[in-house]
Design brief:
The protein starts with a helix and ends with a helix. Helix 6 crosses helix 7 (227-262). It is built from 10 helices and 7 strands. Helices cover 62% and strands 15% of the residues. Strand 2 (57-60) and strand 3 (63-73) form a beta hairpin. Among the domains are: 29-136; 184-225, no CATH class. A 7-stranded mixed barrel has the order 1-4-3-2-6-5-7. The protein is an alpha/beta fold and 320 residues long.
């Protein structure tokens, strides 16, 4: 009985050990896919790995060529990733290749992408280090897309409001679609076109006049281009200035004379305004007329007098 119990215990331990070994083998085969193939180890320094884990795939030109062997933090800015690359694929990867952390699909597992570099290089060998490039941050991209979606939603709302306003017949667009308003706008455009034509013609006329003036044509051109004409004009303006001064002096004298005439102490004012003096002057002129008539009669009587008749006849002959 004891011997049978001992055999069962040994059998149980054997089965348990076999199971543990099987699970361990399956784990190693899952995490180290190149466990049974020849491979080399290369490394690359990156700033951040974004969730990359040991055992994740390494891809070159979209083909899995190895797995991540280890991840080591060098300092606060550098993380070194060691990669196992199959020998058959390593001869196609050059030392100028670039490494970056990517994603298997949009939200899949992290992996290392190997990209062809510029220039030429030799195939990688065990222990080589290749350069790296910044990887695309999927989380940042998703956050950016979230903000973009919010902005698109706001823009869509604004477009909906604008569309509603455009459909309102009382706004500017509705007025422009009105046929009568279109006729008014067309007429206004025609008038603006005519005004532009008139302005163009006026500008051409002004340009022609300016060209004539610059060429010395016309009265204004002669005045501007001929030095003698300019001197004559200056002399004429000087003479006009002198005549203006003389005329001003004469006008001042006439003004003073007119004020003296209007003065009640002057002779003209006395003759014009004093009625008694005017009557006396009128009577004096009447008496002068009467005296002149009497004097003429006396002279004719003297001519008929025989004493003076001879004298007057001699005067008449001398006059003839």
């Amino acid at each position: 009985m004891a011997e049978e119990r001992s055999q069962r215990s040994k059998l149980g331990l054997f089965v348990l050990g076999g199971t543990v070994l099987l699970v361990l083998a399956l784990y190693l085969m899952g995490t180290r896919k190149d466990l049974f193939s020849r491979s080399i180890t290369i490394s690359s320094d990156l700033r951040e790995v974004g969730g990359l884990r040991t055992g994740n795939n390494v891809r070159y030109a979209g083909i899995d060529v190895g797995t991540v062997d280890a991840i080591e933090i060098i300092n606060d800015t550098i993380v070194r990733v060691y990669m196992n690359i199959r020998m058959d694929d390593a001869e196609h990867i050059r030392t100028n290749a670039l490494a970056s952390v990517g994603t298997d699909g949009l939200i899949g597992n992290k992996l290392v992408n190997l990209l062809s570099g510029e220039g030429s290089g030799t195939p990688v060998s065990d222990g080589d280090a290749i350069r790296s490039v910044p990887s695309l941050d999927t989380d940042a991209m998703i956050r950016t897309l979230d903000r973009t979606n919010g902005n698109l939603a706001a823009i869509t709302d604004d477009l909906r409001q604008v569309s509603a306003r455009l459909n309102d017949p009382n706004n500017l667009v509705g007025m422009l679609t009105d046929t009568s308003m279109g006729g008014v706008i067309r007429e206004a455009v025609y008038q603006l076109n005519a005004a532009a034509g008139n302005a163009r013609a006026l500008t051409e006329g002004v340009n022609s006049i300016v060209a004539d003036v610059e060429g010395g044509k016309g009265a204004l051109g002669v005045l501007l281009a001929d030095d003698a004409a300019e001197a004559d004009v200056r002399r004429m303006l000087s003479e006009l200035h002198t005549a203006s001064d003389t005329l001003g002096l004469a006008i001042g004298r006439i003004d003073r004379f007119s004020r003296s005439l209007e003065s009640d102490k002057g002779l003209v004012h006395t003759l014009v305004r004093d009625t008694a003096l005017a009557n006396d002057v009128q009577r004096m002129m009447t008496r002068l007329d009467t005296t002149t008539l009497l004097l003429n009669e006396d002279l004719r009587a003297l001519q008929r007098n025989w004493l003076l008749r001879k004298y007057f006849k001699e005067k008449e002959k001398q006059a003839k």
